[in-house]
């Protein structure tokens, strides 16, 4: 019988296997969804599906650069042990290199990218690595940045890839951009400059400072002057341009880049698992539970 794209999609969602594997299984069982799932499980190909409810909040980040394009990627695993092994790192590099080359629009499109002569997709590679490691592995996010010939990329990874940063400068050179990327990884600025800080963020900070305990009883004009100073300090702390450069605290990041005939354009910083709920595992209890 003819197998539809909808059937293939449904089977992929239920098992996590690649498109071609899903289609072959459906053809073999004449389109019976339940039998197709059983068939894939018998072959071990649906192993990854059983891990779908696990939390993959560990992993690594990586930046791949090709010509005038760069991609920063986060790939997650369940434990940092797996994140440090060769299979995971080979997959991480393959994912980042494919993304920077083909420039998919989103994660779903990235997973469909064909990456070799066997028509395997990135999703296929992720599933295969999941089967090898025994852990759920997911492509969480990525950003692609493109530059002009007159601009410079800088990439830096810290703690073996737990933190990565990608910086774009107008002018300057790759060495300067890498220095700034190192600063971004270490100091974690929130915005390129104070002009980019949203008005509501500034307003909220001002309200907090105006209501601070040490402001009680002070005249309004005095409070305004004190808060203005604190706001300037706050903006300098969260803005890359105003932060003291990590390799030379006597100058700001903006001044350092200017000394290299450049200016700040943008940056992206990824830290593994940021914003994700991590599962706290009591390994002793887990082992005892298995014994019992």
TrEMBL record:
Residues 79-82 are annotated as: Involved in Mg(2+) ion dislocation from EF-Tu. InterPro entries: EF-Ts_dimer_sf, Transl_elong_EFTs/EF1B, Transl_elong_EFTs/EF1B_dimer, Transl_elong_Ts_CS, UBA-like_sf. Residues 70-274 form the Translation elongation factor EFTs/EF1B dimerisation domain. Keywords: Cytoplasm, Elongation factor, Protein biosynthesis. It comes from the Bacteria. It is found in: Cytoplasm. Associates with the EF-Tu.GDP complex and induces the exchange of GDP to GTP. It remains bound to the aminoacyl-tRNA.EF-Tu.GTP complex up to the GTP hydrolysis stage on the ribosome. This is Elongation factor Ts. The gene is tsf.
